[in-house]
Amino acid sequence: MKTPRFKMWVAAAAASSLFLTACSAGASDSGESAKKDSMTIAFTAEPANLDFTSTSGVAIPEALMENVYESLVRVDGDGEIQPALAKDWDISDDRKTYTFHLQDGVKFSDGSDLTSEDVKFSYERVQKDWKNALKSKMDIVDSIKTPDDLTVEIALKKPSNTWLFNLTSLVGAVFDTQGTGDLSNTAIGTGPYAIEKFTRGQSIDFAARDDYWGEKPKVKNVEFKYFKDAVSASNALKSGEIDVVSNLQAPELAGEFQSKDYQIISGTTNGEVVLSMNNAKGIFKDKKAREAVMYAVDRKAVLDTAWAGYGELIGSMVPPTDPYYEDLTGVWKYDPQKAKDLVSEAGIAGEKFTFTVPNLPYAKAISEIVSSQLEAVGLKADIKTQEFPAVWLDKTFTKHDFDMSVINHAEPRDILTVFSKDYYIGYDDSKIKKIAEKADTGTEEEYISGMKDIAKTITDDAASDFLFLFPNLVIAKSDVSGIPANRVSDAFRIADLSWN
Q1: What single DSSP character describes residue 321?
Q2: How many CA atoms lie within 13 A of 351 on its CB side?
Q3: Which of 151, 264, 362, 440 sits in a 20 to 30 Å window from 139, CA-based?
Q4: Sequence spans of domains, the chain
Q5: Residues 6 or more apart from 232 whose CB is under 8 A from it?
Q6: Which of 67, 68, 48, 44 lies closest to 57 in space, CA to CA?
Q7: How far apart, in whole angstroms, are the C-alpha atoms of residue 404 and residue 397?
Q8: At what angle do helices 430-441 and 444-460 cross, to 10 degrees?
Q9: Cis link prior to 389 (omega < 30° from 0)?
Q10: Share of the chain above pLDDT 90, in %
Q11: How many whole angstroms separate alpha carbon 383 and alpha carbon 367?
Q12: Over pLDDT 70: what percentage of the chain?
């Protein structure tokens, strides 16, 4: 069986914007790097459970995609689609039928063989049983046929420029037909690792699979350990308790690791930090109120004060790695006097609103500076800190019980999901639906042009304030390799990591 070659992206100690994660190690007693069988990585947002089919957020797919679950295709560090469970595929002349040819000899972690029926089961289940809002990415599928065990024919209702890329995300995960009985606690996939232990709120232990179909993982045991406090994570790295801080939540601490014992890595990301406003109800249903916020917030000051200047101002829900990126930072320039005038016109001067903030370091830091800027123009934020993920996902995300919030939306190419009418922001998407449909079914040029129009429309509507592209500083011990420079997918891939 010929396995696909996966690119590895390694960075040293430089910078860009980022949203990565990584791994690392310590030197041997002899002064030379030694191979080790285990690695521990610090993360911030822990999974509430193991079921991303019913629970939203980046934490679960970050841990499980490409490690436990795999899709037919994956995306590499440059954002290019590569083979995964499908070794290759054909597309019909009308661009509506995809024929995937599966890798031979693939087994799930429970020992059962992967067949085309598992793919059919998994993708039909997205449409019928999933509760995660991202399930809409599979709505375009019309039918799925399985002519033999290693061939899957998927017919779309219409041509789509986005569907194959969407398969690289969590909606493309392939499940065992007998392996979905307890997804919250048990994950059975085809990936290079199996979950050995899941301690809710604390850690996930991964064990490499000896029967993995592709290139064998280089580290046998990997632990994801969750820290809410950046200082604690940094101290754990210094003490040797962990080997990598995947997402340094206090950028000012990076300077403490500028030595030969560590490496500082940065890359690019999909993570737009969104100051979300409830468009459907409350104070920000009025566009003038939202416009006041857009003029009141000094995004450069937010970036410099809350996140030590790391990150990139982008002005929209589109990162520079997407083909339809356009710099929209000039649409809403900082102008506190205009903000004050709009507050007065809207009749909301001095009116309090609820600012629900997940208890994540970046969100708390941002809320403080943003609240101060809003108060300067006559808007008073009542900050309510909410436990993440449990409380924030329940009250703000699911029940839409908020006026303003702030969160890093890290899922790739999620602009149409986040700004759909039923999503937590409550944006009226009627004016962009037809543009999106035409773009998706059109030529590549029409797709790019249409998506640019959509991004510009959402920004012009002051639907939310796009503060910056999230910087994810990776700090690792010096003798680790295989750390990707870019993170442009759901997954934090661990199979490529190794000790030098």
Answers
A1: T
A2: 13
A3: 151
A4: 51-186, 272-469
A5: none
A6: 48
A7: 11
A8: 160
A9: yes
A10: 82
A11: 8
A12: 93
Look at residue 35 in the predicted model and tell me its pLDDT.
Answer: 53
Q: Is the torsion defined by CA of 249, 169, 95, 421 positive or negative? A: negative
Phi, psi of 187 (to 5 degrees): -120, 115
In 324-418, alpha helices (H): 336-346, 361-375, 390-391, 415-418
Q: Which residue has the tokens 């200047």?
A: 309
What is the rounded average pLDDT of the residues 272-293? 98
Superfamily (CATH) of domain 272-469: Dipeptide-binding Protein; Domain 3 (3.10.105.10)
pLDDT band at 366 (very low <50, low <70, confident <90, very high): very high
- CA–CA gap between residue 69 and residue 311 (Å, rounded): 30
- Residues shown for the chain: 500
* 51-186 and 272-469 in the same fold: no
- Residue-wise DSSP of 92-135: -TTS-EEEEEEPTT-B-TTSPBP-HHHHHHHHHHHHHH--SGGG
Q: Please name the residue ranges forming H helices in 167-279.
A: 230-239
Please, what's the b/e burial string for 325-351 (b: 16 or more CB within 10 A of its CB; e: otherwise)? bbebbeebeeebebbbebbeebebeee
In 10 A of CB 472, how many CB atoms?
30
Structural contact between residues 20 and 230, judged by C-beta atoms closer than 8 angstroms:
no
CA distances from 430 to 158, 277, 324, 441, 454 (A): 20, 18, 21, 18, 11
Mean pLDDT of 19-37: 44
At residue 150, what is the residue type? L
Cα distances from 176 to residues 51, 55, 110, 114, 148, in angstroms, run 14, 19, 9, 7, 17
Structure-block tokens of residue 342: 């709009």
CATH number of 51-186: 3.90.76.10
Within a 10 A sphere around the Cβ of 473, how many other Cβ atoms?
A: 26
- Mark out the alpha helices in 195-323 (DSSP H runs): 230-239, 287-296, 299-307
146 within 8 A of 62, measured Cβ to Cβ:
no
Q: How far apart are CA 23 and CA 428, in angstroms?
A: 42
